Recover the amino acids of this structure.
């Protein structure tokens, strides 16, 4: 036994060292978080669905207790909230726009089916996906539940609400504008799905035009030049512009610049919007519509 004791002591120390090394390697690194953001949840009585709300607070939010802020109601928050935090941070830092609150709207649960859920909420009429056509319910959720929540808890300015979305979210943005144009101050529609339900939004605008000569909102409309949606989207915008609605401020872009021109655009003073053109010409307009946010506060 005396001869074997050193061996067992050595083996014990070796195993202890190995376990310590293994534990050290398995220890997680701290996650990257978004400063100034927080997560809230809401059960909607309008849609019956549970929503996660990704909320970005302005840098001086906790200092200026009496200040009210513009609020961007961002559809598809699961994809675009992180993008918006970076874009707005840059625009605010360079003094292109005032700081704002952003609420990214998405769905609760461990593995939500985003495609199905957004097809339910963002479509004004039934279509291909099962359950689609709940746009009116989702609009009521915004109007009667989410907007009051944001203006009570995050000092949202009721005179400067902005709604933004792309694809089906862009379709919903236009639907909301023609359904209750006074609800939001500004509308950001990127690559809206104009063909939905045999061009429903075209028919909605035609009905709107029969009873309205004015449309006092700010609208930014964009579509990628290589997208399948470019023809119906551009046609819709041409028709809308021809109405000459009183009070309508329109910024529109057809994104045609290829990515290889990015350097030239930046070297010749293209700025944020040109960067958006270069990055989004072939994949859609969801990035550009948010890069254009500073225009809302300049006219």
């Amino acid at each position: 036994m005396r001869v074997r004791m050193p061996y067992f002591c050595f083996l014990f120390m070796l195993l202890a060292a190995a376990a310590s090394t293994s534990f050290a390697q398995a220890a997680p690194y701290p996650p990257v978080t978004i400063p100034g953001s927080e997560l809230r949840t809401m059960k909607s009585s309008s849609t019956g669905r549970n929503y996660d709300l990704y909320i970005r607070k302005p840098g001086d939010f906790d200092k200026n207790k009496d200040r009210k802020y513009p609020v961007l109601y961002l559809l598809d928050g699961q994809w675009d909230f992180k993008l918006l935090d970076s874009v707005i941070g840059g625009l605010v830092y360079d003094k292109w726009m005032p700081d704002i609150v952003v609420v990214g709207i998405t769905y609760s649960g461990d593995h939500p089916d985003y495609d199905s859920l957004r097809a339910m909420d963002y479509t004004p009429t039934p279509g291909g996906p099962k359950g689609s056509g709940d746009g009116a319910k989702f609009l009521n959720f915004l109007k009667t539940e989410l907007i009051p929540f944001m203006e009570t808890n995050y000092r949202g300015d009721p005179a400067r609400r902005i709604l933004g979305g792309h694809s089906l979210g862009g379709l919903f943005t236009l639907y909301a504008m023609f359904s209750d144009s006074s609800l939001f101050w500004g509308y950001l529609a990127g690559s809206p799905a104009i063909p939905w339900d045999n061009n429903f939004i075209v028919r909605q605008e035609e009905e709107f035009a029969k009873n309205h000569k004015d449309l006092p909102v700010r609208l930014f409309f964009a579509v990628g030049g290589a997208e399948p949606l470019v023809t119906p989207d551009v046609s819709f915008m041409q028709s809308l512009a021809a109405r000459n609605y009183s009070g309508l401020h329109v910024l529109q872009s057809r994104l045609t610049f290829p990515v290889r021109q990015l350097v030239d655009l930046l070297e010749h003073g293209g700025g944020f919007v040109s960067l958006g053109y270069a990055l989004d010409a072939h994949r859609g307009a969801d990035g550009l519509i948010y890069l254009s946010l500073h225009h809302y506060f300049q006219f």
